Amino acid sequence: NKAKMILEKDFKVAEIDKRIYGSFVEHLGRAVYGGIYEPNHPEADENGFRQDVIEMVKELQVPLVRYPGGNFVSGYNWEDGVGPVAGRPRRLDLAWRTTETNEIGTNEFMQWAKLTNSEVNMAVNLGTRGIDAARNLVEYCNHPSGSFYSDLRISHGYKEPHKIKTWCLGNEMDGPWQIGHKTADEYGRIAAEAAKVMKWVDPSIELVACGSSHRNMPTFAEWEATVLDHTYDHVEFISLHQYYGNRDNDVANYLARSLEMDDFIRSVISIADYIKAKKRSKKKINLAFDEWNVWYHSHESDKLIEPWSVAPPQLEDHYNFEDALLVGCMLITMLKHADRLKIACLAQLVNVIAPIMTEENGKAWKQTIFYPFMHTSVFGRGVALNPIISSPKYDSKDFTDVPKLESSAVYNEENEELTIFAVNRDLEAGLLLECDIRNFEGYKVVEHIVLENDDLKQTNSAQATPVAPHTNGDAAFDNGIVTAFLPKLSWNVIRLA
Ligand code: AHR
């Protein structure tokens, strides 16, 4: 069982936009309340933010956090979340059938993001609201002073503008579950008009138009084309969302899902370029994969949540080892598209389908998916290389020719580092990797990190971390060739410098 790979410094996909290592915090379940914010927790700082959570977010080096939703944003009045906390209304959140207390709002979240060294990707409500609320929020956040909303921000104690650069024009507006669901034409029109005036308030912002909620939406492709037809000149990005699950317990097929993700990305690029051609435009629209992850473990338990409760444990997927492998494959897939994929948000960050979990009044802990995400975010900075791979293949229920080796590499010229990310999808056997890195003379293997486990269904918990990486991989470099044994079903990070 052998796979070969060739890496050349000059076989470049593109410089990686660090925003592909973004994540997402929605007002949903225990993401905000009990996740990032728990004022009575012993680890809480003077603002009520859990410092143990902040530390873990910093470990992940998340450069961008999408906020405040998600489905939540389509019913959200941003004005409810600013000003004195005592005067903020409690509202029914129709998206998740809970009660929103509004203790945390825009300013508090901006403060939290600063503590984690992240920028915010702010979403505006194009469900129940529209261009007026959107342009007012841009004015509130980004205008220095001397206007109603900028002065309101200052009166709330935030003299400096937040300077939010990246904005989402609503969320999943193609979905019938969305508050204020729209047809592609309805959404395209409102998104274009909102975009226009938001940029009139602050021309430096970048905007993401909503693409489809997932690849199997009946309106997929037609939706993107219509929305971009309306918005092309006003936006920089079109979004993609996708979650996977292993409901039928078919691991070989599950781990191949990243091929579907690859196809989804290619399709959206084609659609964006079709509209470019149609408009004879010089402008290129890039992709924002602003929701992606595994999500299915919590579907049944979520049906038992008491309606209208405050911050109940919703979408608390406990990820197992095989989920971490698929997350690794998805990250590698995104690296392969670094030329057009410039933003991606792991959905989500804390407690809600998240790499970080918290116990009420207790510990914060790392899920299995924490590790591939952290490794890629920390070591995957620089230029994504285009590897030439020859790998044994397999067929599964929905896929043919699935390469057993899923791999990509990142060259950090500044630090003179080369990092190979690799998943061995083989269920039965290890894979011997031979990687020709001909023009990286003088490089040495710094470490070979491996995430492996005999039990595909193994999860972590607050008490124990049985799924954690070790650095006992055997990668070696000799005569221009890196050789490494990739254990069966494993995530590998081979670092050279
Ligand atoms: O991330 C959870 C939910 O998934 C988001 O609120 C929504 O946009 C998507 O359907």
TrEMBL record:
Keyword annotations from UniProtKB, A to Z: Carbohydrate metabolism, Glycosidase, Hydrolase
Pathway(s) annotated for this protein in UniProt: Glycan metabolism
Domain of life: Bacteria
UniProt EC number: 3.2.1.55
SUPFAM superfamilies xref list: (Trans)glycosidases (SSF51445), Glycosyl hydrolase domain (SSF51011)
Domain Alpha-L-arabinofuranosidase C-terminal: start-end pairs: 290-490
Catalytic activity: Hydrolysis of terminal non-reducing alpha-L-arabinofuranoside residues in alpha-L-arabinosides
InterPro entries tied to this protein: Alpha-L-AF_C, ASD1_cat, GH, Glyco_hydro_b
Quaternary organization: Homohexamer; trimer of dimers.
UniProt record similarity statement: Belongs to the glycosyl hydrolase 51 family.
Name of the protein: non-reducing end alpha-L-arabinofuranosidase
Source organism per UniProt: Metabacillus herbersteinensis
Lineage: Bacteria, Bacillati, Bacillota, Bacilli, Bacillales
